[in-house]
Write a structure and sequence with these properties.
It is a single chain. Helix 6 links the parallel strand 6 and strand 7. By secondary structure, this protein is α/β, with parallel strands linked by helices. The chain has eight helices and seven strands, in the order βαβαββαβααβαβαα. Helices cover 43% and strands 17% of the residues. The radius of gyration is 17 Å and the shape is globular. The protein has a seven-stranded parallel β-sheet with strand order 3-2-4-1-5-6-7, with helices on both faces.
Length: 235
Amino acid sequence: MRIIMALNAKGGSGKTTLATNLASYYATQGKAVVLADFDPQASSINWLKARPEDRPPIQGIAAWDEPLRVPRSTDYVIIDAPSGHYGKRLVSLMRYAQTIVMPVLPSPLDIRAAATFIQEIKHVGKMSSRNILDTSVSALLKSIFSSGTAISKARLGVVANRVRESTVAYDNLYEFLDRLKVPFLTTLRDTQNYIQAAERGLGLFELAPSQVAHDTEQWQPLIKWLNSKRSLPVH
């Protein structure tokens, strides 16, 4: 079973767009997919409610309100994580993930927020070594985080979301991630195709190929990374 989480502490970064399109993609590949929505705003669950019955099925779980229990036959669990999680709440959330994909807008404010969030991950890891958290969480943290800046167990990759053009902010984002040794996977352009798909409960890969050819091409580096060993936890 593959568990992929869309995570960013900052709201409006595109987590739901990322999660729903990943769920849709794997469903179109014939995989058994669960979409777990941890955000009480229920954006992913509402997307599923609009999904036509004749499309590949995706099981939704309102994980903010009920336990995350999935069928053993599940191939992929895609998690839409809420914003604003830090400290113990962040640890509790991240214990589910094998792979984390962080969507980031390439603006100075969002880059600074991403930097703060990754620093928070480091800080939580240090907290565990001082036994500030309970024993079970401390053991979990030691298995997830390294003492450096990169995540050693749950693999982290970053997507620059809603990019209109190459900008200084975009270059700064790339340089920032390169310093942290966090892979910068791809950029996704700002297009109405995402809105049109979301309104119908569909993913980008379920629209007419001629309409979304450029957009689906931008997803290929992300999908290739997710399907590779490089995105899997370190044993």
